[in-house]
Amino acid sequence: MAGYEYVSPEQLAGFDKYKYSAVDTNPLSLYVMHPFWNTIVKVFPTWLAPNLITFSGFLLVVFNFLLMAYFDPDFYASAPGYKHVPDWVWIVVGVLNFIAYTLDGVDGKQARRTNSSTPLGELFDHGLDSWSCVYFVVTVYSIFGRGPSGVSVFVLYLLLWVVLFSFILSHWEKYNTGILFLPWGYDISQVAVHYV
């Protein structure tokens, strides 16, 4: 079916030559998270598909978003004088967010460990990561909330753009250089959320 091809033969041939290449200079990642993930990945059986790990982490992020949307639909949970989110919800969201972050850090290690790393798997991982950027930022917004002592919706909008722009920029750089330079902001945001 000529004319209906989305990927040219030359582009398909590029998949065979593709090799994952990333540079992570964040001290938090290098000295804390990667050693932690290297330990955790050994717990997973080798038959467990890396894409299942990726998708499971993404579902946890979506679940957190839905949970916070139910308990704090207007983002006033932190504002004085408004109904607050029950403590157990904050605990569940914090724990599940840490698990999701861990699964996101482990999926690629599982792929390399089981020799099942593919360009399509990386595309799946980073595609879901791009969606997670939105869900994660909106969920975290409940911590700061609206109101006189909170953050405006416009600031939330700007934060979403900053997170998405840094995500897109790092992948654009990878497209041009062949190396994914991982931004520091994501790891720092994870630590900030767990200690707020």
Automatic annotation (TrEMBL):
Q: Which reaction does it catalyse?
A: 1-O-alkyl-2-acyl-sn-glycerol + CDP-ethanolamine = a 1-O-alkyl-2-acyl-sn-glycero-3-phosphoethanolamine + CMP + H(+); CDP-ethanolamine + a 1,2-diacyl-sn-glycerol = a 1,2-diacyl-sn-glycero-3-phosphoethanolamine + CMP + H(+)
UniProt keyword annotations, A-Z: Acetylation, Endoplasmic reticulum, Lipid biosynthesis, Lipid metabolism, Magnesium, Manganese, Membrane, Metal-binding, Phospholipid biosynthesis, Phospholipid metabolism, Selenocysteine, Transferase, Transmembrane, Transmembrane helix
Q: Which GO terms describe its cellular component?
A: endoplasmic reticulum membrane; Golgi apparatus
Cite the EC number. 2.7.8.1
Specify where it is mainly localized.
endoplasmic reticulum
The transmembrane segments are 47-68, 88-106, 150-169
Recorded hits in Pfam families, A to Z, give:
CDP-OH_P_transf
Q: Which family does it belong to?
A: Belongs to the CDP-alcohol phosphatidyltransferase class-I family.
Function comment: Ethanolaminephosphotransferase that catalyzes the transfer of phosphoethanolamine (PE) from CDP-ethanolamine to lipid acceptors, the final step in the synthesis of PE via the 'Kennedy' pathway. PE is the second most abundant phospholipid of membranes in mammals and is involved in various membrane-related cellular processes. The enzyme is critical for the synthesis of several PE species and also catalyzes the synthesis of plasmanyl-PE, a lipid required for proper myelination and neurodevelopment, from 1-alkyl-2-acylglycerol.
Task: Quote the protein name from its UniProt record.
Answer: Ethanolaminephosphotransferase 1
Species in which this protein is naturally found: Mustela putorius furo (European domestic ferret)
